Amino acid sequence: MLKAISDLPKDKKIAGVHCVPITENGCIVMAWDKEEQILTTIGGRLEGEESIEEALERESFEEVGMTLHAEKIPFAAWYWESTDTYTIWFLVKVDQFLPYSFDFEKTGYVIFNFETAKQMISKLEPNNPKRIEILNLAYEKARELNW
């Protein structure tokens, strides 16, 4: 179940972190997953004793060769009943893109505005509104922050 948040939940373990990175001109970045053949938010599971920030930084670099600014704003949580854990989505600002080989599960990234992202996702996944809901929550938070 997806819900909007402004603070990290404390009642369950946070096992996954994703982000909606925003560029300096207000566009967002999503990654192309070669196995699922879909556009995804950037992120994944925490590894070992990794902090949330460390996991976001690692996933952002591993998936698309991107570094992030320090500020990371939580805006959505998905509760996974099967594991009794949360995945948290953060709004983040892109620091820079570094040369990258795309050797993992992502083959590249797309930079676009929120509306184009939602239209493309609707075409690619017409029966799966979850990513649109996440982008709507990210858009609301970005407007609230004047990002």
From TrEMBL:
For this protein, the record's Gene3D superfamilies field holds: Nucleoside Triphosphate Pyrophosphohydrolase
Keyword Hydrolase found: yes
Query: What InterPro entries does this protein's entry cite?
Result: NUDIX_hydrolase-like_dom_sf, NUDIX_hydrolase_CS, NUDIX_hydrolase_dom
Q: Where is the Nudix hydrolase domain?
A: 12-138
What are the UniProt keywords, alphabetically? Hydrolase
Signal peptide residue numbers: none
Asked if Hydrolase is a keyword of the record, the answer is yes
Pfam family of the protein (one): NUDIX
Record-level Gene Ontology MF annotations = hydrolase activity
Protein name per Swiss-Prot or TrEMBL: NUDIX domain-containing protein
The organism encoding this protein is Ureibacillus acetophenoni
